[in-house]
Amino acid sequence: MKEPWMPDPEISPPQSSPSAPVERILRGPSGLGTTSLYLTRREEPPTPPEPSTAPVEGNAIPGLYHHPVPEPDPVRVEEVSRRIKAWALDEVDLYPQEWEEQFDGFSVGRYMVACHPDAPTVDHLMLAARLMVAENAVDDCYCEDHGGSPIGLGGRLLLAHTAIDPLHTTKEYQQQWAESLHSDAPRRAYRSAMEYFVQSASPSQADRFRHDMARLHMGYLAEAAWAQSGHVPEVWAYLAMRQFNNFRPCPTITDTVGGYELPADLHAQPAMQRVIALGGNATTIVNDLYSYTKELASPGRHLNLPVVIAEREGIGERDAYLKAIEVHNDLMHDFEAEAAALAAACPLPNVQRFLRGVAVWVDGNHYWHQTNTYRYSLPDFW
């Protein structure tokens, strides 16, 4: 089976030459005492297992471009599920008893093990699991159906963001801020998840994550502003919002969860940023498509790509949904082509592994949506 980030063998990837910064990185450091610093001297990542031929729970969306993934290791799934529930209940008091079924139905363990098959240990998987649960607590409690509202969202998000990007203030006010981090479930979850994360992440990896979370929060605010005013954006504007309000913080930490680091100068390369953005955008449209019927059944009007296409392009619900599938597929094809071009232009082992990790996350995200029949069902369009 081809690697997840590589195009089909019969399709030639776009040819690109390394940029000047990439060429400098490929040459490596020079000068006295730099012999041990070459980035290429890194152990090869483990080869991912082949996908299982056993039938997968749930139905994939017809026509949606995706790759099958191996069934997640059931032992790891069970252990992550046990640990994340203990953390949510005992460490951060995340939810009341009446939400327990919904927490279990989210299937965090299966999600994280499918998305990070190269994680060295369950402890590494827990880094991603805590952050995923914390992000969903913020979304549910601040934005969505567990008390969320667009009114006043900016203030709530700002204070929650200080749980991952700490406030540096005077001694007089530092204690009041520290106490505020325990005042509601989302902030408790953010604070705790980030404390665990920074113990394993490098400073640049932690700062990268904070940056992506700021992007996420900005996307939340744009969506909330449109909801408050009843505005339905143009399709391109909706896609711009979804580039920020999306899953990007999750695949961008694939190296931390994998127990290695993609150096900051490689992560910041425009070509790498484009690959990460395209992958994040594709995964988010997957969410729009699988959650379509769930959102239609919820109170109020929820913006998602099919709804926006139907409204702005004046077509029926079914045609709008099918066009949204095409948008996803275009994003996926661009993601894979750009990843293949970057892999050819910058053949460093940690770059190859990071690109593979992002692609595996994209595939694992689809697997989780397809198989999570507790949360999602498909519309009757076929």
Report on the structure:
With 382 residues, this protein is mainly alpha-helical. Helix content is 60%, strand content 0%. The protein has 17 helices and no strands. The model is unreliable at 1-18 and 24-49 (pLDDT under 50). It has helices spanning 20-27, 74-91, 100-106, 108-115, 122-143, 153-161, 171-180, 185-200, 203-229, 235-244, 254-258, 264-267, 270-290, 292-296, 305-313, 317-345, 349-371.
CATH class: Mainly Alpha
State mean pLDDT (0 to 100 scale).
Answer: 88
Return the domain count.
Answer: 1
Give the helix proportion (percent range): 55-70%
Q: Give the assembly state of these chains.
A: single chain
Rounded Rg? 21 Å
Output the number of helix runs.
17
How many strand units?
0
Catalytic activity: (E)-2-methylgeranyl diphosphate + H2O = 2-methylisoborneol + diphosphate
Protein name: Terpene synthase
Keywords: Lyase, Magnesium, Metal-binding
EC number: 4.2.3.-
Features:
globular; 382 residues; Farnesyl Diphosphate Synthase; 17 helices; mainly alpha; disordered N terminus
Can you give me a brief rundown of this structure?
This protein is mostly helical.
